[in-house]
Design brief:
The chain has 583 residues and is an alpha/beta fold. The protein is 42% helix and 16% strand.
Length: 583
């Protein structure tokens, strides 16, 4: 009898803790009302129009109580070769109009800004890799100096001491983009090989010396030119010099008095394991990073570019709410954390993690408040099943302990779909406070920690609303469903269909021109089938809504619609996510 009483007491305790079992609620119309309070607007100029730079940044901002104001898409959109252009003439964004838009936000009283410098000086990331001149044509005729345009804009924003301005910049990757301004795969390979060659580490780091060193190897000898035309190499190096010169100019401006509330975040684009052409550029830019009188960094240079906006939004929120950091436990599974996770990373995974932990003031400690779990490539391929099993067991243990958990898949696809299937079948995905995988590990790390640190701070601050919870849920659902279902399965099916059945190019549906309606239909059908299990997992999940006192809610229903290929290529997709009410 006593044993029965104890059993029912335990059951009752679980019911009181968790509430009723998750019940599916019908997804509401999308978009929902904004989660922000009056006056909490961020004026945001995106790097380009890909989902990681647009809707996913919107989700994250709204999950923190901000509204994101953005210019018209035509002003920051990138068009690949043969695709419809902006204003019938441009393949890139329009910096003059974007600068005008920013000044309009300033005149309207905005005090928060996140601005992509690649967009403001080149019209986007892709264009920044190929543009060579300083003079820029104006929409109505005439030209303007790119450097002067930037200097005037920053000076205007500095006039208001209440403004907080995050500037996002990048170290140019090793080669320009295939399928943009005539760029070919052969040219990309030749220039990436040239850029990957080791360079001598310079002692006297000046802009002139770094640029002069582009053509010389680690032995001080002139590097052999690619077999392609010399003009191609000259253009490539001129683009690098222009890009680095503009970054140097911004650092010079920020070093002046009056820019104390400006923050500069530089990301390192696709890199290499060698002492490549980027290494002296990186060392040069590090010298220009500022530190406040209190010893705190004002500027940062980290691996990863497509996650820059995530990091800026999250850090802006942390700074505004008096964040003092969190004790964190990092667990690696797979055994390969001491090496780069893929060929585009130039640091071991542990170093990328350490730099990003420092950016978010996450301190590794035994008595941790926050758990980070990282699945690496399998050091021993014969032990993949064991690593996968340990991953599932660890997630279950953290769930039982009610410990907020960030999951990072740094395996670079080496486990195939088996790890996604195990996670979907045997864990509660909706309990995670952040997840990211299936890209270069620098981007994956920054993405997961941005979302995870921000969500944990919101919960610790006890300021989340239902609307903020729902915006956060979209960030997690977007990551999980795209990684597990699109990138893991549906994309591969589309790639095969486009290449083998249609004889087309999966990187550009316009050359040769493909039936885009047919591709969208296949995308919808594939996602409907492949997302069913993962959506069911999320719908039966509970999410953390409070830490003290600890509380959870059930997710409710999930529906996906309005699928799209933002760049008319198969690499990434966009979609709208409708959610039911949380209970």
């Amino acid at each position: 009898m006593e044993r029965t009483k104890r059993l029912w007491a335990a059951v009752l305790a679980l019911i009181l803790l968790a509430g009723c079992a998750p019940r599916r609620t019908e997804p509401l119309p999308y978009p929902e009302p904004a989660a922000s309070e009056p006056g909490k607007t961020i004026a945001y100029v995106p790097l380009d129009d890909r989902p990681d730079n647009v809707e996913r940044v919107e989700y994250l901002a709204e999950s923190l109580g901000y509204a994101l104001a953005m210019p018209e898409e035509v002003l920051y959109r990138t068009a690949l070769d043969h695709q419809p252009k902006n204003f019938d003439s441009l393949q890139r964004g329009e910096p003059w109009s974007l600068s005008t838009w920013v000044l309009e936000q300033e005149a309207a009283g905005c005090n928060r800004y996140i601005l992509s410098l690649d967009q403001l000086h080149s019209g986007g990331l892709v264009s920044s890799r190929s543009m060579t001149g300083d003079e820029m044509e104006l929409p109505g005729g005439g030209t303007v100096s790119t450097s002067q345009l930037l200097e005037n804009l920053l000076a205007k924003l500095a006039e208001d001491p209440n403004n907080v301005v995050w500037l996002l910049d990048s170290v140019m990757r090793l080669a320009p983009t295939v399928g943009y301004e005539g760029g070919t795969l052969e040219a990309y390979n030749a220039l990436r090989d040239y850029g990957s060659q080791p360079r001598e580490a310079l002692e006297h780091l000046t802009l002139v010396n770094v640029c002069l060193g582009y053509r010389y190897g680690a032995d001080g000898q002139l590097l052999p030119e690619p077999e392609s035309s010399p003009e191609l190499l000259d253009s490539y190096l001129a683009a690098r010099e222009r890009k680095l010169g503009l970054s140097d100019e911004v650092q010079r401006i920020l070093a002046q008095p009056g820019y104390e509330r400006f923050r500069l975040l530089i990301g390192i684009d696709d890199s290499s394991l060698e002492d490549c052409i980027q290494k002296n550029e990186i060392a040069f830019l590090r010298h220009g990073l500022r530190t406040g009188e209190d010893g705190k960094q004002w500027d940062w240079l980290l691996s990863g570019v497509d996650d820059l906006a995530f990091k800026a939004v999250a850090r802006l929120y942390l700074d505004e709410t008096g964040w003092t950091g969190a004790r964190t436990a990092v667990t690696y599974l797979g055994g390969a954390e001491d090496r780069p996770a893929c060929e585009y990373d130039f640091q071991p995974l542990t170093e990328i993690m350490e730099e990003h932990l420092a950016f978010f003031d996450l301190r590794e400690a035994d008595a941790a408040e926050l758990q980070i779990l990282v699945l690496t490539q399998p050091e021993d391929p014969d032990q993949m099943n064991a690593y996968r099993k340990h991953l599932i067991e660890a997630l279950r243990d953290y769930r039982k302990a009610q410990r907020p958990t960030i999951l990072i898949d740094a395996s670079n696809g080496t486990y195939g779909t088996a790890v996604y299937e195990a996670l979907t079948k045997d864990t509660e995905l909706g309990y995670l406070i952040a997840y990211s995988g299936m890209l270069d590990m620098a981007i994956v790390t920054g993405t997961a920690l941005s979302h995870g640190a921000a969500r944990y701070a919101v919960l610790r601050n006890e300021e989340n609303t239902d609307a903020m919870d729902r915006a956060w849920a979209r960030t997690l659902a977007d990551s999980v469903l795209k990684d597990f279902c699109y990138k893991g399965v549906v994309r591969n099916d589309l790639l095969s269909y486009i290449r083998n059945d249609l004889g087309g190019d999966a990187n550009n549906f316009w050359f040769p021109e493909l039936d885009r309606e047919d591709l969208l239909r296949r995308l919808k059908e594939g996602m409907k089938e492949e997302t069913a299990a993962a959506i069911k997992n999320l719908e039966r999940s509970r999410l953390i809504t409070s830490l003290e006192p600890y509380a959870e809610k059930s997710w409710g229903g999930i529906a996906l619609e309005n699928y799209r290929f933002p760049w008319d290529r198969a690499f990434e997709i966009g979609m709208d996510i409708r959610l039911g009410t949380f209970q």
